[in-house]
Amino acid sequence: MTAATHSPLFPQVPETADAVLDGLDPEQRAVATALGGPVCVLAGAGTGKTRAITHRIAYGVRAGVFQPGSVLAVTFTNRAAGEMRGRLRQLGAAGVQARTFHSAALRQLQYFWPKAVGGELPRLAERKIQIVAEAAARCRLRLDRNELRDLTAEIEWSKVTQTVPEDYPAAVAKAGREAPRDPAETAKVYGVYEQLKRDRGVIDFEDVLLLTVGVLQDRQDIAETVRRQYQHFVVDEYQDVSPLQQRLLELWLGDRDNLCVVGDASQTIYSFTGATPDHLIDFRARHPRATVVRLVRDYRSTPQVVRLANGLLAQARGKAAEHRLELVSQRDGGPDPAYTEYADEPAEAEGVARRVRELLATGVPASEIAVLYRINAQSEVYEQALADVGVPYQLRGAERFFERPEVREAQLLLRGAARAGRSTDPQLAGVEDLPAQVRAVFSTRGWTAEPPAGSGAVRDRWESLAALVRLAEDFARARPGATLADLVTELQERTEAQHAPTVEGVTLASLHAAKGLEWDAVFLVGLTEGMMPITYAKTDEQVEEERRLLYVGVTRARRHLTLSWALSRSPGGRPSRRPSRFLNGLRPGSPASGPGAPGLQGARGHVSFGSGFEDGVRSAGERDAAPARARRRPARCRVCGRTLTDAGEIKLMRCEDCPSELDEGLHERLREWRAEQARQLGQPAFCVFTDKTLLAIAEAVPGTEAELSVISGVGGRKLGKFGADVLALCAGREPGQCEGPEDSPKK
After folding, report:
1. DSSP character for 643?
2. Does the model's pTM come out above 0.90?
């Protein structure tokens, strides 16, 4: 457990202001005690920046320098804001406002709109992309979903850079931005989009900031009211501030300089949204008397992971690279990062799933493992691979914990039990222990201490309730004598702060979504040219941002780090892909790349080849599977003979539009059987067989295990588990029915 990254879930509130400073390292203490004037904290990954700034706020409040209601702490996500509120509450600084830019601006806009403009604030548009689609249609453009998403992103960029429709083409050219379509065309759609919003009396997310800026600029009396309310400002992730957010911050401040900013130019990964590290980099120039503190003690990652992270940035170029921080690990040593090459993407996913199982077997919790990829479309093959080996997972960016139906229901049950009390509620009679009371309440809805098999909806529900039980256990240890009513209050406060407990399950997330998070074990997958850096990163600055994105991924790992890539997309495909250029000079055997490349001396590691390529070395875990994959021929359509590359077509062994030989009756029987298997296992149906695999079986009608095993999606484990049932159905028998002599499959 480290000073910067881990603390007890329910620490005791410090008794004095000085006690707030206990446990801080010298640099963190310097941040916490710098209560006046402009302060700039340059904080590397894992160095405890949130700890430093929350202790600064709490120390200022507890010492009487700050009034809680006069502090506004601003960050970029609701999760980060909720975490900050939770930490401040634990430090005895409740009442401090910790919000996102949009949340703070919306609150002010709702309060001052009647006075500044009159009437009610226009409602927020629920789905911006629908209005963009209508605007495009009025401009006689027919766009698919991806094109609409790109166009929406361009409108958002324009607004946060304070660019009006008629100035968009010039602004794109000046910024060197690669527009997804003709700038004049985008400008026209942008203009129609703005008119549609005005006609309907709605505003969008960016309008919240723009309108707040407009009110504060035009109404000096309102601006002064806000400035009297807020005397001290803290901005987290300052490298991600857009020009519009910076303008709003300046209007909040007025002519004062009671501002503390925290950031790391090497973690700027949102420039496509208008974010720029320039405000952080130039802070000292704008505030010559600013206190500048550098946090470089990395409490998160082992020296091996930190060495790789430093080596990655040592090759960087550009303005942000000039301000990089050299991290110094404060942890004991761990395993070297592993580099693994695979023949194809399914092989890579299977290899990652096997390694995840190995980590679980050594005691690493599923919630402490993450698989990170460049784009969300890469997740499907990993979802399938983890489901195939029975490992639960959760998609980052899915429904928030406290919004899940089972969690809402659980809170209602606990609230009712707390009101009834042990004397009147029979399920709590004689149960003194708080966690036992919670388990008893949940048992009325079928919850048991042992998890169900599989990784489907039933398991997801169990994991949610198990997370609440673990929270109750931690709460009882930290607050001896706490009652069920106390726990209900704690849960309510956590719901308001979106401070969720840990849910067991491997995290699948994009690199962007992983920002601000950390795990014991991280798998960085799909690290090939064209994906990392992404194909559309053309300029030097765009490529450097991709390097920073990989740096963010590397620094999410505490101990175990695996980097992998596949030489082709599909089994049997041409091995034409190359590992990411960012790994040059870092992975063993690769050439040095870029200024100051550290080579193998700077970033040791071990490399394995999951497919028998290059020098033929491969890890033991891959040894058995690799020869078969290496010999696999290109898949061809069994109808027209065309080479297949799409994973779904490879499963069917035919083109999607080629004639199907489907046995519809068998297909329906297979679907009914799959549904029953899924019900028994408590898993979603696709964990038994995907729709495509089921369709392929119904088309091929295999008669032997050998024929069934060659169908994509029927691996050795599923063959052993479901093979007999499937072959029985294909032969027209009921699963489990003994074969007669006339229908015994020929071996």
Report:
1. B
2. no
